[in-house]
Amino acid sequence: MAERNAEVIVVGAGLAGLVAAAELADAGKQVLLLDQEGEQNLGGQAYWSFGGLFFVDSPEQRRLGIRDSLDLAQRDWEVSAAFDRPEDHWPRQWAQAYLEFAAGEKRAWLHAQGMRWFPAVGWAERGGAGAGAPGNSVPRFHVTWGTGPGVLEPFERRVRAHAQAGRITFRFRHRVRGLVVTGGVVQGVHGEVLEPSGVARGAPSSRVVQGDFEYHAGAVLLTSGGIGGNHDLVRQYWPADRLGPVPATLLSGVPQHVDGLMQQQAAAQGAHLINPDRMWHYTEGLRNWDPVWPRHAIRVLPGPSSLWLDPTGRRLPFPHIPGASTYDTLRHVTTHGYPHTWFLLNRAIIKKEFALSGSEQNPDLTGRDLALTLKRVGKNPTAPVQAFMDRGEDFVVRGTLRDLVQGMNDLTGEPLVDYDVVAAEVRDRDLQVRNAAGKDPQLAVVRGARAILSEKLIRVAKPAPLLDPAGGPLIAVRLTVLTRKSLGGLETDLQGRVLRPGGEAFPGLYAAGEVAGFGGGGYHGYRALEGTFLGGCLFSGRVAGRAIAAAL
């Protein structure tokens, strides 16, 4: 038997890997942490995130008068996930375990490590199709003070302290190419040492090989992420039966190194990959005017007031409204073959309802700058939103509706948008604004949201005619599908042990985070409720780390 280089090898230094490594080292285990990127990418995708976490019945919710419960969250998850396959056995169990964690010790565990949250709870995936339809019944999206870097901070701190004490060893620029399997048992990994790279975080790095490596351990934990940066794999697994043809143009919401290759290699060596056709991509992608990685897109986190138009200017049918149900609107867009869609709004709406996903697009929250954060309730859009209005190629800003439509057609180079169609849609919407009731279901969602204090104060604009001159210039925003998350992954039991196709454990192999569909091989089912990607990395990394420590 080869000499062991560590008790546990963790492949991938993203959030799930950091959490697991910290838990393992806390238990006294020697950990070897490998990543194909340089140290500047420590923390992986979580660094770029908005830092949203899913809590159930939190103090923040209660302070706002939001009545939440585990029962309500379980029902929301059940109808959103729509589990319908034999392979959903473990994903169902992971979902239940995660919900109990989110309603139980999750917040206290993170709070004890120094994490704090913005007091206004966000309402992502707000649904709107009915009580028994997908979506969050109440706001549950808790933005971490410090955004993605704030989520990473306590775990990076713990891991670096263990590294200084000699319990964790980092090996950056080590690309794992396969598992070392002896007698059916995983005993290590092998791969290539890549040349050093000083490129900025998230930017494409060199793939020049300088050497090889092989390391051995008592257990291997895969936390290598999903496939969102690898459009070839996205297209390979794209569920055409449900979503229609894969769009000709896809933008990337994650760096290029999120390539899914370790997941694919594990499956080739006998791990069970399930639900790879379940994906989480956003329809509200903007081409980044200051890109870091290829096809870099930023997602709009919209409030519910903008008109959502198809390429001809016709309004998308209800319940396809901004912020309602990502998967269902994606399905509507892709099955109709739309190359893009449009938000139509005005300055009054954009200054209150437009947020951009990502730590770099929210310098106030990321930098924990209270004075700058308070400016969100001011008269102007945030500086990042204004920068996109000024420099982003997907924005059209005009003084009249006719000029706006002309600008939309100029932007695409085709006269697709019909002025008469758009004018009719705007007129019909605006006629419903002046009454407290009316028959426009989107406006009913807007009014319902404003019954919650935080939504009224900082998130949802007061209903007003789009053509009201006091609302400022009109704005059209071209939206393109961007890739983001893998909802399927390596099948795991509730200890994070990777399973083989027959259901038995693959000895010595564990998985956590997105490579495992955030738990079990797909604990979201078909739809995520948001705040559950980072949360899934936290939970599955903790579970796997503690389970491995107990098993060795």
UniProtKB/TrEMBL annotation:
Signal peptide: none annotated. Transmembrane segments: none annotated. Keywords: Flavoprotein, Oxidoreductase. Residues 8-534 form the FAD-dependent oxidoreductase 2 FAD-binding domain. The keyword Flavoprotein applies. InterPro entries: FAD-dep_OxRdtase_2_FAD-bd, FAD/NAD-bd_sf, KsdD_DH, Succ_DH/fumarate_Rdtase_cat_sf. The keyword RNA-binding does not apply. NCBIfam families: PRK12834.1. This is Oxidoreductase. It comes from Deinococcus enclensis.
